[in-house]
Amino acid sequence: MLTIRDLKKTVGGRTLFDNATLTVNYGERVALVGPNGAGKSTLFSIILRKDEPDSGTIERDEWTMVGYLPQESAPVGDETVMDVATGRADEIPALEKRLKELESAGTVDGPEYLEAHAKHEALSNPQVEAKAKKMLRGLGYKEQDFARPAKEMSGGWVMRAHLARLLVMEPDLLLLDEPTNHLDLLSLLWLQEYLKTYSGAILMISHDRQFMDEIVESVHEIADQKLNPYKGNYSEFLRLREAAYEQQNAAYKNQQKEIANLREFYDRFRQVASKASQAMSKLKQIERMELIEKPLPPKKPFRFNIPQPVRSGSRVIALEGIHQAYGKHKVYEGLDLEVERGERTVLVGPNGAGKSTLLKILAGVLEFQKGERRLGLNAKIGYFSQHRADTLDANKTVLQEVMDAAPTLGENEARGILGSFLFRKEEIYKKTGILSGGEKSRLNLIKFLVDPPNLLLMDEPTTHLDIHTVESLILALEAYEGTLVFISHDVHFIRKLAQKVLHVNNGKVAPYPGGYDYFLEKSGALGDERAALTAS
User: Fold this and answer.
1) pLDDT band for position 388 (50/70/90)?
2) In 3D, which of 137, 244, 257, 176 has the Cα closest to residue 529?
3) What is the pTM of this model?
4) Which candidate, 250, 326, 346, places its Cα nearest to that of 294?
5) What is the DSSP letter of 297?
6) Separation between Cα atoms, residue 366 and residue 419, nearest integer Å
7) pLDDT of 118 over the 60 cut
8) Average pLDDT in the 123-128 region?
C-alpha cells in the first residue's frame, strides 16, 4: 500500500532522515513516534506529496485513497457542521474542480485522478448524510448541532467535524496527526472502538500512550535519522527498545574489552622478537573488526523533587446547594460536593456536561447563582486552566518566571525541569510575551510544580505535552502530597493518578470510589460506547 525506500530529507541544514525505510500494508495499524522536531509531520507531508524528499522513493498503490487529519484545521466560512462532515461545502467542489482539470489535461488514468474520483464517489453516496450523523454522534455532537454554522464552534469541535468527514469517506490509508487532541474522554473511547474494526490501514502520530496501546500493531521510531521498526503496541515497543539497547550495549562492552585485550598484547610484545609477528596479527585483528557503535540509552522521564505543600485540613473544600446556569441552560441545580485531603479525583463525562464549570466553581473563578462554597483549614488553591497566558509577565524570560515562582530553586535544577518540559538551550531565555499558546501552557504547568498549592485543580494538563513529558508530569504528581482534582482525556494519565472518579452528566455528579477501571466496570461506560457504535 505504502512503501518508503532510502529516504533522505534535510530541513534547515539538519538531516531528519537518511536511508530511511517504511512499509505500511493493507489493514495495518502503525504508530510513528519520536521526540518533537524529529520529523514526524515532515514525513506525513512527504507521503501526501506536499513536500519532496532530497532522495529516495515513496510508492503508493495507484488505487489507494489517502485521508489526512492535521493537528489544526483550515478556517471555516458559513458552512454548517453537517456540510463539513459530508464535504458539501469545500471537499466536493474542490474535488470536482480538480477532476475537470485532470480530464482537460488528459491524465485520467493517473493515481491522482483515481484517488480524487474515489473520494468524490464516497462523498456523493446517497447514504453519506446518515453516515455523517453516525460519526458526529460518536464524536460527541448533539443532533441540534448538525445544522449550526461551524464557525460558531470552537476549533476543537471543527476538527471533530473534519474527522467525521474522513471516517465517512473510509480511506484505504488514514494519516492521523494527534487525533485525540480535541476529544473528550467519551468521544475518545468511541473513536478508539471504531478504529479497532476499521477496514483500512492507519498511520498515526500520537502522544496518547493508551490510545496507541489499544490500536496499533507496530511502531516505527524516528531515531538516528532512521525509521526503526518494532512489532507490537507502544508498551511492547518500549520493552523491545530497552531490550535492544541492553543487547547492543553488552555487545559494545564485550567488543571494547576484546579490543583492549588485543591492544594490551600488541603493546606488550611488539618489541619482543619472538612474538612480534603474533603481536602484529593482534593489531590487524582489531583493524578487521566491524566496530559496534556505543548505543544511546532510551530517553527516560525526568524526575525532580517536587516541594510539598502545607498540610490542609481533612475537608479541603465543600460545595452546598450550588445552582449554575448559562442563560436558559441549567448546568447544576442543588449540587453538593466535598473534597477530602489527599484525594486524587478525575472528572469524566461528555463535552458540555459541566466538568470545566465545576472545576472553575471549585477554584473560585466562576460566580454561581445560588449555594455556598466553603474552603477548609489552610486550604490553598491552584487552578491550572487551559488558558493561562495572562498570568505570565511578558517582559520576563522563561527561566526568570520559573526562578521567581520558587526562589529556593537552583538554576541548574530549573534548567533541568525546563528541559524535561521541552524548553531547551536558548529557549529558556525567550521572553514569555513571544511564546506560543502551547509554550505558555507548559510554562504555567512548571510554575505549579515548583511551588504547588495543597489543592491542585487541573484542566487537561497533558495538552501540548509529548509522551516523555507526560511521564515526567505523572512522576511529579505521584510524589505530590496535596489534593488533586483534574480533567483529562489521556487514559494512561488517568489510570496512573486517579483514585476516585466523579462522573458529571445531566447536572448530576456521581462518585465512584475507585480508579478509572473501577469506573468503567461499575458505570458500564465502555459498554455504552460499544453499544452506540453498533447501533448508530
Assistant:
1) low
2) 137
3) 0.83
4) 250
5) P
6) 34
7) yes
8) 90
